[in-house]
Amino acid sequence: MKEFAEHGFDKASTNRIVKDAGIGKGMLFYYFKTKQKLFDYLVEYSMEFILKEYLGKIDETEQDFFERYKLAGKFKMEVHQRNPYVFSFLGAILVNKDFEIPKALEKQYMELRTLGYSKIYSNIDTSLFRDDIEVERIYKMIHRFMEGYEKELLHRLNGINLTNYDYGPIWEEFYEYLDDLKKLFYK
Hints:
72% helix, mainly alpha, 9 helices
């Protein structure tokens, strides 16, 4: 994952991969006949990891929308610290245009995104929101804001090596935005 995240698919070196792994090149190709098959496996593994280690552990009993969002963010940071290459690998796929999610895994990727959204929006105490705006409209506005923030963030990170990147300032900015949104949309 580190090799693909740092160098992209085309420049990823199986020689560096086997050297870092401490195995022979024959062993790598015994299990993953091609570099593409290795890449596909890593995409699938990363999505399964995020499902089990991150999304599967989001606390859906927290009914305050913004607190759940913050807790999910904090938990994501903890998971990231345990295995930074999973997030940097998937992040590189989202940020860099030279990567493509394998066609066979696109549906799984979209289901993972949908599950992520449902983990954030389900079982929320909507009585905390302002009464003068429909809750669904608030969700749409927050969702659009977050999509825009994500696109802007991906643009900022484009071309940056994400394997050793300090995400601290980004998390601080993210939490500040959540606090601002809470002021706008809560009673």
